[in-house]
Amino acid sequence: MKKKNIVIAIMVIALGIAAYNALFADKDGNDIASSGKSVANANGDMEIPISEITEDASFFAYNELDSEMEVIAVKASDGTIRTAFNTCQVCYSSGRGYYVQEGDRLVCQNCGNTFGMDDVEVTKGGCNPVPIYDDQIKINSDTIIIPKEFLKEAEIIFQNWKA
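Structure (tokenized):
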């Protein structure tokens, strides 16, 4: 009887791990449930510390509205900082139209399209991250501030995000 209970317990644990990976892991098994650092200031605006932006994509979460949202920030090879919503312009409604970094590329988790870091915020239309342009944000010496009002306008593209 004890062996049977142990086997059942192992099976339950294995099923739990499989279910977690199916819901919260990319195709390589990397955790995607909480990849971003939450960054909201007292006004409800998204505030991204420039010191945390490198040549590797940084993912910043925003949870102040009804939908969980995420912004990609990266320093391009020319030294400029680029920002985009972590959702695909084409695949966003699938729930899996978001990006993870693999090597020096961002990869859409729905269709597999890859996207270079230097193309963030520059390329629009097609399967790539939704750009956030400089006129939509405030940049000072230490932070990038994305106003809550602008994020609210973009919330619709996150309604089925990672669902």
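The helical segments are 2-24, 148-154. Residues 100 and 106 are 6 Å apart (CA to CA).
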